[in-house]
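Data deposition worksheet. Section B asks for the primary sequence of the deposited chain exactly as it was used as input, without tags or linkers unless they were present during the calculation. Section C holds the resulting structure in token form. Section D is free text for depositor observations; keep each observation to a single sentence. Incomplete worksheets are returned to the depositor.
Section A, Depositor: J.P.
Section B:
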Amino acid sequence: MLPLHHGGPQRPEDAAGTSLPCSGPASADTRAGHTSETRLCDADDMSIVIERVETATPALAEFLVAHHAELEHTAPAESRHALVFERLLAPGVRLFAGSVDGRPVATGALAAVEDGHEELKSMRTDPALRGQGLGRSMLTFLLADAEARGIRRLSLETGSAEFFVPARAMYAAAGFQECGPFGRYLPDPYSTFMTLTLPAASVIPAPRTR
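Section C:
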């Protein structure tokens, strides 16, 4: 995929159109209406397995270290807000990785801001696979995960420079709109803040018992 926050934009091909839906779950986390934490998702030319990450692996750690390296030229250190791997595994953060043949090719995370409000974090795709819809597939997955858990608002911080135009376009295509700083962020000329209101999750009534 591509880095979508301060870590690099995605190509215009990823910003256009809508994401393809994820297919049936490969693991069961559907209790209480929650989305599955492992799903097979279709990008433009391939299928990737997206699953929740709760323990570190060398391959994924290397993938996320590369994310930080890509950010270095985009803004001063104090204006770069990507989380280190350890913080992505902390309570209150849901980290997901997309893989092809067991190799990580995409990441994305959801971090709690306040009740009913989460932040989109650590969106990145493998540079060799950019432009193939992986960013849209990960974004679609994360939106569905948040909505199914009753989250009503998703926000994000990305770069304000021309370098990030394709990333901002992809988020805008998904319904995100520019907003002011949220959570603990402060106004910053290097940052663009965007937010999206999610529809209320459908609640399936429990079966009646006599």
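Section D:
Residues 134-148 form the longest helix (15 residues).
DSSP finds five helices and nine strands in the chain.
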